[in-house]
Automatic annotation (TrEMBL):
Keywords: Pyridoxal phosphate. Its cofactor is pyridoxal 5'-phosphate. Pyridoxal 5'-phosphate (PLP)-binding protein, which is involved in PLP homeostasis. PROSITE patterns: UPF0001. The modification N6-(pyridoxal phosphate)lysine is found at residue 36. HAMAP family: PLP_homeostasis. NCBIfam families: YggS family pyridoxal phosphate-dependent enzyme. This is Pyridoxal phosphate homeostasis protein. Residues 12-223 form the Alanine racemase N-terminal domain. Coiled coil: none annotated.
Length: 228
């Protein structure tokens, strides 16, 4: 418990320091705790410490945790690649989905969302066009944003990127793309999320304008790959 508390405080202080250096309000950056492959008890302990937003990559593992922690007011984010045959689970059980990169995925999420509250989504962009990474191309973003914005039951909040390690210029390019889309968005007040930056590069991401950083290792330690 104390280790998790100390780790979270260190990450929050790092976020605060990065915001000061970038002359930004610390409240403008949200910490998303990436809890994939870590047990529910660690999530519970971090929840007690004040953390509310948690990110998961694996659908079945996440569904198990959501059930185990049903009594807690957790904001669940799915941050993995979205497969067509998993959209129903995501639409039913999550608050956010970060990995939307095709119109058909957004359409399925919209059709399958039965909650009164819309599902918050981020468009994943392959900002530096890596062959090994998912995400739409930057040139496709404007058309996708226009189409997805028309769908009911969804609230398109912004962009998510995972650049190549050390490619900090990608953060700057993502921020520029984010602002370009905001200028043409029908509901710019909803376009408020730039999800980028992880344990190793959150400082550079915040300097470039990230509003949400996805942190796992710096909070929970190395991942437990023996997951159920």
């Amino acid at each position: 418990m104390n280790d998790l508390h100390a780790a979270r405080q260190q990450v929050l202080q790092r976020i605060a320091s990065s915001c000061v250096a970038a002359q930004r309000d610390v409240q403008s950056v949200q910490l998303l705790a990436v809890s994939k492959t870590h047990p529910s008890e660690m999530i519970r302990q971090m929840y007690v410490d004040g953390q509310r937003a948690f990110g998961e990559n694996y659908v079945q593992e996440a569904l198990d945790k959501i059930q185990q922690l049903a009594g807690l007011d957790i904001e669940w984010h799915f941050i993995g690649h979205v497969q067509r045959n998993k959209t129903k689970h995501l639409a039913e059980h999550f608050d956010w989905v970060h990995g939307v990169d095709r119109l058909v995925i957004a359409q399925r999420l919209s059709q399958q969302r039965q909650h009164e509250r819309p599902l918050n989504i981020c468009l994943q962009v392959n900002i530096d066009q890596q062959d090994s990474k998912d995400g739409c191309q930057p040139a496709e973003v404007a058309e996708l944003v226009h189409a997805i914005s028309q769908l009911p039951n969804l609230c398109l909040r912004g962009l998510m990127i995972i650049p190549a390690a050390g490619h900090h210029q990608a953060f700057v390019e993502a921020q520029q793309l984010f602002e370009q889309v905001k200028a043409m968005h029908q509901h710019p007040e909803h376009w408020d999320t730039l999800s980028m930056g992880m344990s190793g590069d959150l400082d550079a991401a915040i300097a470039a304008g990230a509003t949400m950083v996805r942190v796992g290792t710096a909070l929970f330690g190395q991942r437990d790959y023996h997951r159920s």
